[in-house]
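hey can u check if this looks right to u? its 383 residues, i copy pasted from the old doc so theres a chance i mangled smth
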Amino acid sequence: MPAATRYLGKPLKRKEDPRLIQGLAHYVDDIVLPGTHFAAILRSPYAHARIRGVDVSKAKAAPEVVLALTGADLRGSIGMVPCAAELPDLKPAPRPVLALDRVRFVGEAVAVVVARDRYAAQDALDLIEVDYEPLTPVVSPEKAMEKGATILHDGHKDNIAYRWELEGGDVKAAFKNADKVIKQRIVNQRLIPVPVETRGVLAEYKQGERQLTVWSATQIPHLLRTQIAAMLDLPEYSVRVIAPEVGGGFGCKLNVYPEEALVAYLAIRLGKPVKWTETRRENFQTTTHGRDQIDDVEVAVKRDGKILGLRLHVIADLGAYYQLLTPLIPTLTGLMASGCYKIPAIRAEVTGVLTNKMATDAYRGAGRPEATYFVERMLDLVP
């Protein structure tokens, strides 16, 4: 190979840098198609409430507004938000793109307005009247597991979404032969990813070609294409998803959100391009959160510091609904429980719990940093 084309041992410039530092790159909100309309979403101020009624008549009559819809208007038109994780005995927690009878976390979408002007759409949200009946929320996963706790989803006997366990080696013998057992409760607090660029969606439907094109600030354009087609009951070949520059994701944009299917549906219904750009407040409330685990850990050790075994019980706060990988993420904590150490016997148990919060999902390592935290902390405690 000629010396001029050798790459090993040479510093390489990033190919994307020139367009980024010159301001020549395009993010979703930079893209404006002719005739673009703008969507704004009314969100619940309650963590848990029954919806008695939603009146959008004043919003429909507002200047520049072309459409205002509720969950009841969309019933049967858009499928539920997808969850790709499958675990034994996982309880269903179906999430519509707009709430139907109940809201289950602060920020859940209740109604949508589309207008010719971005600010007109936002102003029209103030004209929507929602009759809420506040219900008792459950925000602690441990309290959500208690007998008598408010049940989030109809048909469930409790708020435990699933129980998962994994064991390797002789755990009983490890703890029986230990000179000392060290116990510690470790809390991995809930986090909000907060990328610089919030989520954004632009959709255009060409009736003649029957072709839907969706621009999304997503980390998974191919999977998003599949799921939008499924949610809207369209053939997959008629859907195209474009991911332009993405201003940070960290896992929170590795997902399929209600707004992506909702904006696509609005574009089809109106025959006009429709755009929605998430505000920072919406980002805090409705983009997936990370972590939120209570980890009870026990380590069996000999006097010389040799580790014989580890027991782990994770209480994972899943939030009110499942996003794409919500139930799966805490199980990765169990799979990574040993970290980089030789631990001959491990038992991991995970209890996934439903609470009145936004769903947790992948964020910066997806369940594995939680394991790294507790195993390193336990090693600090070994004498």
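The chain has a mean pLDDT of 96.
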